[in-house]
Amino acid sequence: MSEVYVHIANGNFLLLSLTGVKLPTEYFPNLPTDAKGKPDTQALFKRMGELEKAVTEKDALTRMLKSSLDEVRNRFSQLAPTELDQPADFFGQKTTARRIYLRIFAH
Question: pTM for the whole thing?
Fold first, then answer.
């Protein structure tokens, strides 16, 4: 069950990063970056898989999930409507920040 909750937290952090929010170094330290300074996708997904296996204790799991949910709520509540319409890249597909936040809420 812990893997499911960590997957949700990972998804929140990953999708937020697509809107320009930095990944938390507590969970994603020292990730290699690409030429644009963005985390290497392969390394990121590898780390997410590691976290799904490693974070199993209730307190650590609760802290991680709460941290991801708080970050989504805080970031979204601070956005102006025009910021939601800013262009974003969803793994090679052109989209907007609004659509990424919709994906977060649906996830």
Answer: 0.91
Residues in the chain: 107
Q: How many whole angstroms separate alpha carbon 54 and alpha carbon 6?
A: 9
Whether 23 contacts 39, CB under 8 Å = yes
Q: Name beta bridge partners: 88.
A: 95
> Does the structure show a pLDDT above 90 at 37?
no
- DSSP string spanning 53-99? HH--SHHHHHHHHHHHHHHHHHHHHH--HHHHTSEEEETTEEEEHHH
C-alpha–C-alpha distance, residues 65 and 72, integer Å: 11
CA quadruple 13, 15, 18, 21: dihedral sign: negative
Cβ-based neighbour number of residue 5 at 10 Å: 18
Residue 6 CB-density burial (10 A; 0-12 exposed, 13-18 middle, 19+ buried): buried
